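Shipment paperwork, digital attachment
Item: protein structure file
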Amino acid sequence: MIKINLLPFRLARKKENIRRQVSIFVLLLVFSTIVLFYSNRIWNNQIFTLRQTVSGLNHELGAAMVSAREVDKIKKELADLEKKRKVIDRLKANRREPVELLDAMTQLIVAKRMWFTSFGSTGSTVNIQGVALDNKTVADFMERLEHSGLFSAVNLVDVKQTDIKKLNLKSFHISCHKAPPKSTANAEAKVS
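Attachment content:
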């Protein structure tokens, strides 16, 4: 019988398997290192690109915020100008009112029988203080105020006996409201 020694064949096969496993391990290690290096490089490039984009966006945001502040400043200035324009328009509309009021008073006064000591206008309220010869003169003046169409709610606040240079005179205080201008009253009537 022939005897065959299989040990060297098994040993050689075992060495071959070990060599193959080591080379596969080394190749996998090299391949993994290459893949990790390549993916790291790609990620670093993406991070660098994103940082540049963020930096650019931050720069644009800063410029936009400066522009927004300028726009807010301009809006505030426009609002201030609009307020000033409204005040000027209101002053233009009302600038003749005191003159017209005084002119109306000179037309309505009972000549040579009364005179004013104080005349004031606050908003739509007019306060008139004066001295008259008698109560009838005060009543005539109040009727003239009511029928003039310039005043409404004419009220006699008080009448007092006053002695001026040994004359018995009547000191009076009248409060009334300015009637709205006819153009405003007509516009309000059309709206209703």
